[in-house]
Amino acid sequence: MGDGKVRSRLRVLAVLMVIMFSALTVRLWFLQVLATDFYRNEASQNSIRLVQEPAPRGEILDRDGEKVVQSRTTFEITVDRQKMAVECPENAPQLDHDPPLPCYGESRDELARLLGIDNEKMDALINDVRYYPFAPVPVAFDVSEDLISAIEEHDRLFTGVSWLKAPFREYPFIPAGPDGPIGAHLLGHIGPLSPDQIDDPAYENYDPNDIVGKDGMELVYESDLRGLKGVRQLRINAQGKVINVVAASEEPPIAGDDVVLTIDGAIQQAAEQRLADGIARVGGVAGAAVVYDVETGGIVAMASTPSFDPVIFDDGLSLREAGQLEQTGAFLPREGQGPNGTDLPPRKDCKECRALNRVTTGEYSPGSTIKPIVALAALKERIADMSTRIDCPATWSAPRDETTSFDNSDDQAHGLLSLSDALVISCDTVFYQLGYEFYRKEVSYPKDGGIEYGPSAFKRDLEDFGFGDYTGVDLPTGAAGLVPDSKWKKETWEPRVLAKAERLKSPAKQEAYVRDRFCQYEWCPGDSIQMAIGQKDLRITPLQLARAYGAIATDGKLCTPHLAAKIQAPDGSVVRDVTPECAQIEGYDQEWFKYVRGALAGVTQDNSGTADTAFAGFNFRDVSVIGKTGTAQVALQNKDNAWFAAIAEGEDADGKQQHYVVVVFIEQGGFGGDAAAPVARQIIEEAFGLKTQDAYQGEASD
Amino acid sequence: MLSPDRQPVRHIDPVLLTVTGLLSMVGLLMVYSATQRTLTNLGLDPAFYLKRQITWVLLGGVLLLLASTFDYRFVKVYAPIFYGVTIFFLLLVRTPLGTDVKGSQRWFEILGFQFAPAEVMKLALIAMLAYYLSELRHQELTLQDVLRATGLAAFPMLLVFLQPDLGTSMVLGAVLVGMLVVAGARPRYLAVLALTTIVLALAALQLGVIKEYQVKRLTSFIDPANDADGAGYNKIQSEIAIGAGGLDGRGYLKGTQTNLDFVPEQHTDFVFTVVGEEFGFFGTMLLLSLFSILLWRALRISALSKDPFGTYLAAGIASMFAFQIFVNIGMTVGIMPVTGIPLPFVSYGGTSTVINYAAVGLLLNVHMRRFK
Question: Which of A32, A81, A131 is the best mutation test for B, with the most CBs of B within 10 A?
Fold first, then answer.
């Protein structure tokens, strides 16, 4: 081993070292000489953190200014995963995850002990995948100030734990309704953004962990209630400790605006209570009640039973749980639960869903409550006039079709009746004949054979009163209902009939099968006849009915129902008014409306009226109440659906002149006059400050 | 056992001694700067770490004196025992006697000071390899020799790796390669060695010996933003601190990144960021120059040595320093992966500091006794 060789090998080593040092020099030259401006900027940004301060969410007030939903700023505990994490012990199960989950040490244990939950649950909360890895993860909502100061005082124990202020909702209207606070369906609730909303462009200005309105007023008026977050620039160190606030850049949060409702808290409360009691009394399944201001379209009360409790977020943690339930769909429909907790078989159409607002989304056959509108349509189409007298037999069959007979619901004949008399006693056979006349007006027999029906004046007349279309109410959900016609019938039923026919072997048999079932898919007299008494395919929502009765009350003024009266700033100044949107229904004489209202007065006041018993002893001197009962048969349902629609006018307890429509609907409640009318009476009495009668116990017929 | 031989002292390397002293000064200044603000904020003595580091430096000084006083050829005699005892301690640290810190067992805790056998292993391996290579009688290194040398290094590397201390394990590998180069291993043997390492690393990954997060930590330097709060966080923060230093730095104790604690592990593995931020490009170049002089003297001593053992010893020490300097600074400027390798003489640290001074002592020893 010669010296020369060693020297040359050492030179190799030296060259390697020179290369290494050159690389470092070049890199340092780049960082410190060429790119220093960039890094100086980064460095100054590094210590400045933008901190968002949530804006107080607007509140929801009733029409008298009483708070129905109240905002409260609460404390929320958050965890910085990176700071709380400790190095995992060897063989920790977390490391088998891909990617490995962080391990949390004493700080986690302390926090779990403070919140009174076990470590496993704590870990699950902290590792919630819905939050970015570096974002603080909220682990406890609406915690007491004591807890916050406990964390502040022992901040060495709580590494990576911090807190922030968050808006929280309270429903101060006490006492609450039977299933929770009042107005659950219309007020809605708030919750974290759902994954769908995060992707929704409408929510692009939101942060993924923002709390937003999820339903009802909270959702519809989200942009008013929300306010604007404040931003503060804080100089902080790497531990997140605030060194000082950069005052120049401070933007305080702007509180959200308040929503003032057309709802009257007291009437709402009465409606919910009376409806629930009324359903229980007749053993009904569910129900709806609405009090509607005929002059403005404002909804004064809106009750749907069964209801639910939007304050399920009371233990702080369950806000998150509610969000998760909501995502899986488990939160909203509480299937299989009837009123009073009775078990019902699960149903796919969600009839027993608590969150379903039956006032706007329940679609039902109106039964006889449609008759006043049918009478008005008959007057308009010159099928009858105010002096026409029509026979009211016990049973009636369409000419040339003796095989199908339509019975009066009381199976009795009442002789010749005017339209008004027919409304008072709710004679079905009179309205069958009107329905048949509508059919005759609209059917034609083309020369090449066959039958053509339509365009239907009957359908158009019902649509003029707002049926078959959304009401435009300011709620996120609603149903259009259905006013059927020949086109709808054919599209809906012909494919089913043909499909069944195809199972038969010979074409002749198939043809015969389809021919025999002509009236299953084509518009036949029976369709118009049934529609005239609000049965078969006609579907309406309780709110549509209230709106149409509002038109009857106001000589044809059809208004768009709404729940918000105005938006106002926290200082009480009006941001914007929700102006009533009303339109006159064309083609009707004022006289006709007056005539029909006269008939409806008979319903509640004449001895023969179907709601006479329900309104026995009512104070008609101070408040005029007119109305119509309805009893709708539903296939496969052992009890009928009960309806009552009333128009009430008079001075309320404050001496203010009020003009309301009150619609009460009870699913499987039986007779409308027996089940629904007494509830309507109680609601009216409470709304006008009259002495309330005890629940009516008698019998009545439709 | 040492006969007082006053002659060699006159042949001490003053340059190496001066450079070591200057580096120690830099280290103390930087450790103080990196820690004083945090300590003050916590209500503690701002000089706490400085005082501890001074203790380590003084202890290192004693070891430097010891390592240079006796004839280094004694090291050759005792090299196998030194090597064996250190391996014994490496095994012992895995038992409950070792201190479990953040899931890894690396230290013995003695009187409040930590003693890490892995650091000692660096010197023990250098001595052992120097002993083994200098005992070879043939002209050129055979494949068998290379494999044996590799075997000597591989066992402690494995033990250190399992602690887990990937950084120190890599330093041991660098020492092996550096010494094999000086011993004249053929390039293709070294190539085979490199290839085997790659295959073993892949196998380890496949069998799950290396965890996914370890790979992530090693690869995050390529795109640190990809993992900005995880393994990439250190990297980004340290680059910002160094880059923000600019040409002439922000001044001693005036680095904002340093004061606000944005750079983690700043007094230990990331101490270079303090130099970068507070003294700028001039400061980092000055420090690199000091390191260059250190390495130059080490290689010079290797060349001047009167026997192969001294040559290998000095070459091993030079390789150790060079690799640590490069990987440490490289990781702070973002061109090397983040591994826990301290910067010699500057990083705060116990055993590693003391070992550095002992290594300089050995270099001085070889230099003093370079005449036959």
Answer: A32
Task: Decide: residue A25, CB within 10 A, 0-12 exposed, 13-18 middle, 19+ buried.
Answer: middle
B88's enclosing H/E stretch is helix B73-92
Average pLDDT value over all residues in chain B: 84
pLDDT > 70: percent of chain A: 82
The per-residue pLDDT for A328 is 31
| Distance of residue A16 Cα from the nearest chain B Cα, in angstroms | 9
Question: For chain A, what is the largest distance between any 2 Cα atoms, rounded to a whole number of angstroms?
Answer: 138
Q: How far apart are CA A532 and CA A678, in angstroms?
A: 25
Q: Name the residue with tokens 């109410």.
A: A473
Place of tokens 């937003």: A212
Residue A675, pLDDT above cutoff 90: yes
Q: Which long-range contacts (CB under 8 A, 24 or more apart) does A450-453 make?
A: A451/A522, A453/A486, A453/A522, A453/A523
Chain A residue closest in CA terms to B272: A28
CB contact under 8 A, A24 and B288: yes
Q: What was the pLDDT predicted at A443?
A: 80
State the count of interchain CB pairs (< 8 A) between A and B. Answer: 154
Q: What are phi and psi of A584, to 5 degrees?
A: -80, 130
**Residue by residue, what is the 3-state secondary structure of B243-304?**
HHHCCCCCCCCCCHHHHCCCCCCCCCCCCHHHHHHHHHHHHHHHHHHHHHHHHHHHHHHHHH
**Which residue do the tokens 């149409």 mark?**
A548
- A35: which chain B residues are within 8 Å (Cβ-Cβ)? 243
Nearest to B260 by CA among B277, B279, B247: B277
Task: Say whether pLDDT at A344 is over 60.
Answer: no
Would the CB atoms of B302 and A24 count as touching at under 8 Å? no
pLDDT in tens, A614-639: 998 888 999 999 999 999 988 777 88
**CA dist., res. A219 & res. A57, Å (int):** 12
Name every chain A residue with its beta carbon within 8 A of the beta carbon of B259.
Answer: 237
> Rounded distance, CA A238 to CA A197, Å?
33
- Cross-chain Cβ contact B284/A32 below 8 Å: yes
- What does the alpha-carbon distance between residue A199 and residue A218 come to, in Å, rounded to a whole number? 20
pLDDT at position B204: 74
Contact A40 B243 (CB under 8 A): yes
ipTM score assigned to the predicted complex:
0.92
DSSP A341: G
| pLDDT given for residue B345 in this prediction | 95
Query: Which distant-in-sequence residues (6+ apart) come within 8 Å of A402 by Cβ?
Result: none
- Judge whether B162 and B155 are in contact, CB under 8 Å: no
Residue of A29, A39, A96 best to disrupt the B interface, most CBs of B under 10 A: A39
Q: Take residue B95 and report the two structure tokens written for it.
A: 């038992």
> What is the rounded distance in angstroms from the CA atom of residue A93 to the CA atom of residue B129?
41
Nearest residue on chain B to A238, alpha-carbon basis: B262
Please state whether beta strands A161-170 and A67-79 pair in parallel, antiparallel, or not at all (unpaired).
antiparallel
Tokens 């977390």 correspond to what residue? A94
Section A513-523 average pLDDT: 87
pLDDT of residue A325: 36
Q: Are strands A211-213 and A190-192 parallel, antiparallel or unpaired?
A: antiparallel
Question: Could you tell me how many residues make up chain A?
Answer: 702
Residues B157, B176: Cα–Cα separation, whole Å: 10
- How far A88 CA sits from the closest chain B CA (Å)? 6
Of B35, B341, B82, B80, nearest to B218 by C-alpha is: B341
Give the amino acid at A566.
K
Q: Which of residues 156-195 of B touch A (CB under 8 A)?
A: 178, 181-184
Would you call B139 an interface residue with chain A, using a CB distance cutoff of 8 Å?
Answer: yes
Tokens representing residue A360 in the block: 């706007």
Give the mean pLDDT of A326-333.
Answer: 33
Picking from A172-181, A332-341, A395-404, B255-264, which range would have the lowest pLDDT averaged per residue?
A332-341
